[in-house]
Write the structure tokens for this entry.
Amino acid sequence: MLTDKITTAIYQRARKMWRQDGCPTGRLDDYIERARELQAIIDNPTSGLLPNPIATYGPNTPPLLPVEEAELMENLGEFPTRFTDQGDHMQAPMTKQRARQIRQQG
């Protein structure tokens, strides 16, 4: 069962976790995969961290990706919003133009 891709430490960790969970039949491969992931986290603890742009460039830094307007949300579906089963709340903030229309009506 021990292959070239599975180191002894990973296999031992997988067996330990497998035994702690009551030795579920046919699931040792799942525990080997979990042990590989844990070993990758131990070997590279900062690989999933991104630098904080505010700490680097200050609070007035523009976002890296442009922020989309709320008007885009109005064109996502082909069906009227009052007939959907998503509840009676709006799925996205309303646009400035729609807010002005509602304000003028009421």
Helices lie at 8-20, 28-43, 53-57, 96-105. The CA atoms of residues 39 and 45 lie 10 Å apart. The chain has a mean pLDDT of 76. The chain has four helices and no strands.
